Amino acid sequence: MTKRNVSFVVWGVALLLLAETWAQSPRKKLTPPKPPKGQCCDEVRSLKVQVANLTSILEELSRKQETDLRNVVRQIMDLDQQNRQQEARVTEAESRYSEINNRVEIMQLQNLQSVTQTSSDAIYDCASLSSRNYKISGVYKLPKDELLGTPELSVFCDMETNGGGWTLIQRRKIGLLSFNRDWKNYKSGFGSIRGDFWLGNDHIVRLTRQPTVLRIEMEDWEGQTRYAEYSLFNMANELNSYKLFIANYSGNAGDSLRYHNTTNFSTINRDNDKCVDDCAALRKGGYWYNCCTDSNLNGMFYRYGEHTKKTDGITWYAWHGPNYSLKKVEMKIRPASFHP
Ligand SMILES: [Ca+2]
Hints:
Blueprint: H1 3-30, H2 37-118, H3 126-131, E1 138-142, E2 153-158, E3 166-172, H4 183-188, E4 190-191, E5 197-198, H5 201-207, E6 212-219, E7 225-235, E8 244-251, H6 279-283, E9 295-296, E10 315-316, H7 317-320, E11 328-335
Antiparallel strand pairs: 1-2, 2-3, 3-5, 3-11, 4-5, 6-7, 6-11, 7-8, 9-10
């Protein structure tokens, strides 16, 4: 064989090999290796079982939650009903209590009348009633006493505060009654003894003929309470313009009456103050105006929201200043000699 023939054979073989390689390669790409048939189905089956289990657990949980919720709702409804029943019972008890209280009051009044018929001691005020064991706060009728020159008089007695025995001479709490009244009104008194009232200067003068304590209780619109007490309180008669004398302050409201000490009583039609101004007209009440006020307990009643807008309200400067009208006030007196 010649060298040229050998080279031909080599080229031929090489071309054959190349052709075969080219023909086989695309066939390999079309058939990727498959996983064994049995393993695939087992995994799917196991997943399906797990999903089914989870679904049934979820359903059970949701059923349980629904039952729980229904139970809770039922319990709440039960509690609500019990609450309403209890409230009804309390209301009933309260109404029974108030009925009994009314009866007690009536019995007390009847007793009081029989006491005054048999006793030589006069029923002078709430302190004398307290000493005779009338210990329930409320309205009492002080009988007429010719020896003392006192007419029959309805009074409200505070038999609880600090030992009781207090006769109320003033109250502000409802706010419908005007206190901007004339001399005659303040002289004889006005208002309702269970609501807002001024007992009357002549009555107060009579009740303070012996050494007397004055206690003033106040409440603001935030529900806080304060008091001011004067262990010496006295009022001159009408000829002396019901001049005020107070001394020996104690309490937690501050002393806003001292400024009014030794001043005369003024009303809308009697300017007895110590000022060029007409204080009763400016402050719209009857009071012992100086020039003009450090307190104005007979001023205008202003409701919450309006209570900080004027200077003619029910004020006590030492507690809330000149622009705060109080929600509630009670002025009460009892003899200095009273022992609860
Ligand atoms: Ca004046």
